[in-house]
Each structure stands twice: as structure tokens, then as C-alpha cells.
Design a protein that fits this description.
- The chain is mainly β and 358 residues long.
- The chain has one domain: Porin (Beta Barrel).
- Helices cover 7% and strands 52% of the residues.
- The protein contains three helices and 20 strands.
- Strands 1-2-3-4-5-6-7-8-9-10-11-12-13-16-17-20 form a 16-stranded antiparallel barrel. Strands 14-15 form a two-stranded antiparallel ribbon. It has a two-stranded antiparallel ribbon with strand order 18-19.
- Strand 16 and strand 17 form a beta hairpin.
- The termini are far apart.
């Protein structure tokens, strides 16, 4: 009888609604046409750096996604489901249709604990074209982790600073590949309405549990976003990544990757804007890009430079049409592309993307 009485007492309380709660549903669609000088054939995914607008001489859908968000003073949750060529080409083969699925509780006024599936906290560029200056992503963004599964502790002491600590399954892992766990830190300082400065890192070792040699990877990412005026914006990012026991010349030494991105955007009018992005990527020991034999007979990883130029038309604040051209030039001897019947060290790209979100 006591248990029944307690249940009846609690029932009205459980049925009460949280007056602070809100539920939002959103969507985003990005479509494209792309052409590449690399001869992989119409409608086929590019073999190298396959992500945004991956098919050659073809119309396609980069992404079609739906997002549901629940927020209240004490709890929150986000789930985003996705489909399209972008997740097919570059997302996890496990749970491929899930972009995000996480839930969180508020521990104190400034502290949240969330767990589940997250988009990456690493990178100068985001994953989706709508969140970046350019539609395509740089090569370093392609090789950095895009998704993660685990827990996140977020501390926001004021309106300028935010700190987040991640404990996740691994580098681009929804499902753990070993018994080790990876950790990441995100520190962001907001410069009012001018931009932000951020430092993000990631430490992981995805070697098998029975491996006798450690391959601990330490990724460091520094990002600077700044608006010089309402018309002129800049985004700069620098990455330094190390991995133990991965040097080609001496297997007992660490190997390093260096990369930078510099993107500029100028708004010519209310509707039209132009943008440019320069990038460099150097992985001489190939622990990110993989080891190849160049035309000189040497083992090496990828080293390259890239330039992207684009024109954007924004009919509304939540839509765009972009015409974008890009050229990637590999180091001498790294003839990884195929054009006009021969192997070459460069690729020309052209894409038109159109996106709408709500």
C-alpha cells in the first residue's frame, strides 16, 4: 500500500511539463554538379580526398539531413540523420545515417555533461558546406577525424570562454577498435562579434591491443576567425600532428604532419560575395595519407599545395549558390592523378553547389 501511495503521489509531478523546454526541427539540403580533370569516369567517386561533391561530370546531392533538438534548463539532446554522397563517400560505414545523436544533463550553472555520437571538435573547417567559406574542404580537413563517440564535459564560465573535454572511442571511430580511449580538448575564446580564437587537440592510439609498439598520435589545431568589417572576413588554421614510431627513415622516431589553411571572403554586395582559400599539407612519412612510391623510386607520404577560388550568391541568409574552382598540386614525382592518358601530379576541380537550410 505504501508503494502504491508513493506512486500515486509522484504521478502528477512526473506528468508536469518543463516550462523551459523547447523542441526544434531543422533541415538542410545541398546539391551539386562537379567536374574533375582526374579521369575516374562519369558518376564515379574520386579516388583521392573523396568528400564534398565527389562524383565526376555528374549532378548529385551532397547531403540531405534532418535535425531534432530538445533543450531545457537541465537537459538537452540532439539527433541529426543524414543521407547523400557526402556521408556515403566520407562518413563512418557504421551508423552511416547518423551524424549526431547525443544527450546531456546540466551539472551546475556553467557545466554540462553530454554523451553519445558527436561531430568532431577538431578542424579549422566544419564538415558541411553551409558552415564554411568554401564548399570543398581542404586536404587536412579530409584527414582529420570527422565523427566521434563518447562523453563531453563543457565548461562555460562567461560569454567569452568555453572549455570542453572529450573522452571518445578513437580517431574517427563510432565503435571502438581497441580497449584504449582517446581524449580531446577544445578551448575557444570569442572576440565579441569580430570572431574567435580556438585551440583544439586530440590524443589517440588506434594500434591493436596486442601491438608491442605504441603509435600515440597527438593532433594540435589552432584556429583564428576574424571579421575585419561586415564585408571582409578571414579564417586561418594551423595543424601540427605527431605520431610515435612512425618515421620512415627511423621507425623508432616520431613522424610529423604540418598543414595550414588561409581563407578570405569579401562581400561585394548584399547578395554576391567572392572567396579564396590557400592550403598546404605535408605528411612526408605518410602516417595520415599513406605511404607511396614516387616516380623517383622513394617511399613518401603526400605533400601538396592547393588554391580555391569561388563566387557565392546568397538569395537569403539561409541559402546559397556557389561556383567554385580548385587546383591541387602534389610534390614533384607524386603523380597520383590520371589525366589525358597519363599520370600527373595535379588535379583541377570545378563544382556548383546550391544549399538551403531551415
Amino acid at each position: 500500500m505504501l508503494i502504491i501511495a508513493c506512486c500515486l503521489y509522484c504521478l502528477p509531478v512526473a506528468a508536469q511539463k518543463d516550462s523551459t523546454a523547447s523542441f526544434k526541427v531543422g533541415g538542410y539540403v545541398d546539391t551539386y554538379y562537379a567536374a574533375y580533370s582526374d579521369s575516374v569516369g562519369p558518376g564515379k567517386f574520386q579516388k583521392k580526398f573523396t568528400s564534398v561533391s565527389p562524383t565526376n561530370n555528374s549532378f548529385g546531392v551532397n547531403i540531405a539531413q534532418a535535425t531534432m533538438q530538445y533543450n531545457s534548463v537541465k537537459v538537452r539532446s540532439t539527433i541529426t540523420l543524414q543521407a547523400g554522397d557526402l556521408p556515403t563517400a566520407a562518413w563512418s560505414p557504421v551508423y552511416n545515417f547518423i551524424q549526431e545523436a547525443n544527450a546531456g544533463i546540466r551539472l551546475t550553472k556553467t557545466l554540462w555533461l553530454d554523451a553519445g555520437f558527436f561531430k568532431t571538435h577538431i578542424g579549422t573547417e566544419a564538415l558541411l558546406p553551409k558552415d564554411n567559406i568554401a564548399s570543398s574542404v581542404s586536404v587536412i580537413t579530409f584527414y582529420e577525424p570527422w565523427w566521434q563517440a563518447g562523453g563531453r564535459l563543457t565548461f562555460t564560465p562567461d560569454n567569452n570562454w568555453q572549455f570542453a573535454l572529450y573522452v571518445v572511442n578513437g580517431y574517427n571511430e563510432f565503435v571502438a577498435a581497441n580497449c584504449k580511449k582517446a581524449m580531446g580538448l577544445a578551448i575557444t575564446y570569442t572576440l565579441g562579434d569580430k570572431g574567435s580564437i580556438g585551440y583544439y587537440n586530440f590524443i589517440s592510439d588506434d594500434s591493436p591491443d596486442n601491438a608491442t609498439v605504441s603509435h600515440t598520435r597527438f593532433l594540435n589545431n589552432l584556429v583564428f576567425n576574424y571579421a575585419f568589417s561586415k564585408k571582409f572576413k578571414m579564417q586561418a588554421g594551423f595543424d601540427l600532428i605527431s605520431q610515435q614510431n612512425s618515421n620512415l627513415a627511423n621507425a623508432n622516431q616520431s613522424a610529423f604532419v604540418f598543414s595550414y589553411i588561409l581563407a578570405l571572403r569579401y562581400q561585394m554586395s548584399k547578395v554576391f560575395g567572392v572567396y579564396a582559400r590557400g592550403e598546404a599539407f605535408s605528411d612526408p612519412d605518410g602516417f595520415l595519407s599513406g605511404v607511396m612510391i614516387d616516380s623517383y623510386g622513394y617511399e613518401t607520404g603526400y605533400e601538396l599545395n592547393g588554391l580555391t577560388l569561388g563566387l557565392e550568391c546568397k538569395p537569403t541568409e539561409s541559402s546559397y549558390i556557389r561556383l567554385e574552382g580548385r587546383k591541387i598540386v602534389m610534390a614533384s614525382g607524386q603523380d597520383i592523378f590520371y589525366s589525358d592518358g597519363k599520370n600527373v601530379n595535379y588535379r583541377n576541380e570545378l563544382m556548383v553547389t546550391m544549399g538551403i537550410w531551415f
